[in-house]
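ESCALATION

Customer reports they have been waiting on this structure for their group meeting. Please prioritize. Original submission:
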Amino acid sequence: MNISFTPELEQFIQSQVANGKYASTEEVVVAGIKLLEERESIYKGRFEELRREIMVGVKASERGEVIEGETVFHQLEQKLQQRRQQTGE
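Update from on-call: job pushed to the front of the queue and completed.
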């Protein structure tokens, strides 16, 4: 497989090898691909977590356990004000 890099990326890769962080260009590319795999895994996990949280909300809504949006926003504003007071913002 042949891969072409922009001059900026090629310079970055060469600097990583020159600094001794990696032994070769291939190691830099493999490290980048592994980071991409990790990121995709994290995103997939977060997506599934959000899906479960949404289903909890949908089921609560079906049971009639809902709060008016205006009330929710008011509660969020209060929490934000409390945090700002605690942190001195």
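Sent to customer with the following note: The first helix runs from residue 7 to 18.
Escalation resolved.
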